[in-house]
Amino acid sequence: MKSTPLSLIAGVVALAAVTGFAALNAPGDAAPAQAKAAARLPVERSSLLCPAPSSSDLAATTYTSFTPAGKSDGEAGVAELKPAAALTAEEAADPDPGKDKKAVAEADKAVIALKEPGKPAGAETSKSDAPALVGTATGRLAPGWTAQQTTAVTVGAARGVLGATCTGPGTDFWFPGASTSKARQDYVHLTNPDDSAAVADIELYGPEGPLKSEVGDGITVPAHSSVPMLISTLTTEAVEDVAVHVTTRSGRVGALVRAADDTAGSDWIAPSVDPTGTLVLPGIPADATSVQLVAFAPGEDDADVKVQLLGKNAAFAPAGNDTLHIKSKMTAAIDLRDVTRGEPGSLRLTPVDARRATPIVAALRVVRGTKSGREVAFIPATGPVGERASVADNRARGSVLSLTAPGATAKVKVTASAGSGGGEPAVKTYTVKGGTTLAVTPPVPSGLKGTYALTVETESGGPVHAARTLSLPEGGVQMFTVQTLADDGGTVAVPTARQDLSLLDD
């Protein structure tokens, strides 16, 4: 007699409804010939991690947390970012379990808590020892939850606006555009949101291949803690252009690179999209005075790619830099100078031979200004906005939204949220011609008080890639930061679960 317990059936049905990873069939039975299309339901839980903002006594940091108004009608939920324990590399390597207890003890009070979808929440700090933050959103606050950390440092070697979109935890990150040169002070920040320690490895690759390192392996990141690693201490080789690869042997971490340049200020380097054959790097400011492309091929094959600038009216190849050869496991860089020539643009990298789409990662190092007024930001390759993407911490002035359609013409809806301190949402629709970049001053909430968020939704046409430039001028320097927008993953595909009672015998 064959029987399937009802409790097992009910459990699998529930798992399918929550995660989208389970479908119900009787043990040993074949899948149905024609399965129903999976429904898309809002996610019920999201996690974010923000790095320690700065060690400068002159830094001022603004945090903004936001969930777009959505389709979820579940429970209210919570969305809180709490402190992680800040540990040095030496403390992280200490097996003393008291370190984990210290981390948990310091993480009991939220730095910023979001109350409702559609309205940002903000917080500020000027502490030089402000910690990294870890957090979780549930219920209606989970789908599309995002947070922005913006730090302004007006003097010193770390001068600049450092902007970071807080990241989700993962196990594999690529950062082209870092450096171990004497003029740079680049740190990899590793943050562990979980209850057990994570173990991470950091690999460095320069123009000649892997950089020798004996201290980048087996880095312990205790539970609920954050560890910064100065990249130049991981190797004896001083290299201008480095690709950083962060992986975990166990556990998960959030990873970001803070880059400080003695000649051009500082900013965060966000991870590139996973290695793939075609990449889009959106949002080069119109007044960029220097643009450098750094790319890396992590596989066994070399890559030959076409380089195209998607400008205001058309796509074209930069003079003298229409192609780039990237040797396997070697970092390649080209100086595109002032490639935009007074117009906004984005970069598209495609294989020279479509039959050999070698996966690569890439980022741009963008400079505005000249001489002592130089300021740097980084733009990683990013995926399309997809169904919906958001970016927080926009001000009444200083935001520029870049929209790029690398293929077919597309139409997008841009929503400016309510302000964190008041103001009514505003909506505007834009058409982006295929093969071009459209840079706009985004809509601003009427009666704005505080900061607001921008949400971009694809309505029709081909994929759209987007980036937001936030400019906060200070002392004649056009200090700025650029954040890319990618699909927020606010919904998950959930296959229809079926319960066949004929499987049950009396």
Are there runs of 5+ residues with pLDDT below 50, and where? Answer: 1-35, 99-105
**Proportion of residues in extended strands:** over 45%
Structural category? mainly beta
Helix content: under 10%
Outline type: globular
Question: How far do the termini sit from each other?
Answer: 9 Å
Work out the radius of gyration: 23 Å
Given the structure, what is the number of helices?
A: 3
Largest sheet: 5 strands, mixed
According to DSSP, the number of beta strands is 39
Biggest β-sheet: strands ordered side by side in the sheet:
5-16-12-18-19
Question: If you average the pLDDT, what whole number results?
Answer: 89
Architecture overview:
The chain has 506 residues and is mainly beta. The chain is built from three helices and 39 strands. The strands form ten sheets. A five-stranded mixed β-sheet has the order 5-16-12-18-19. It is globular, with a radius of gyration of 23 Å.
